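Researcher: Next sequence.
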Amino acid sequence: MSASLTRRRLLPCVGLTWALAVALSPHYEEVAVLSVVMAVAMVVSLVGMLCLLPRERAFYDWAWVVAGVLYVGWMLSYWIRLGMLANGREWVCLAVLTTFAYDTGAFFTGGAWGRHRLAPTISPGKTWEGAAGGLLSAVVVATAVSRIPVFLASIGAEYWQVAILACLVGLSAQIGDLVESLLKRSTGVKESGKLLPGHGGVLDRVDSLIFVGVVVYYCVVWVIV
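Model: Next structure:
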């Protein structure tokens, strides 16, 4: 088996397994378990890549794996933390629906009226008009969903709290999209998939959730609850 083929198989396996272990960390009963997982994964992955890859590429590829694990695994673990709170399922549903509302509103508003680019050097397709439309959509959807009886009884947040939270969700989703675009430009990849043409791929829709989980979790824990 060639070194390049081994690397293509090793990197995804190590990264996905490691990221999954970190994402599930809120379920660990002992805090020390996460420390053991991180230590073992770092040593095993680094030693394995040093043995299998050309030395000029080994540390570079290993660093990308570590960055991906922290970016995806650790950040997504906050969705599990959010779901483990009292009425966590309702908060998760509200956050996801608000994020999708922002993405959808920004896409259609930007496509129809977008003129001023938001971050031309990172993602030329995103506009200030799209961001404004996305924020409006997020606030409307979040407010409407929070007034549904099952959500109103569980969450019990005021209108102004939901509106502010929706704005923070929209801002976090936009940051997640820009970070994904920057990562794709850094690696020379234009699309992360072909299932959603014009959206950058399915991963772009998922990446908009990465920062949202952190923001909603701390808003609920520190402000609302």
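Model: Residues 55-83 form the longest helix (29 residues). The chain has a mean pLDDT of 85.
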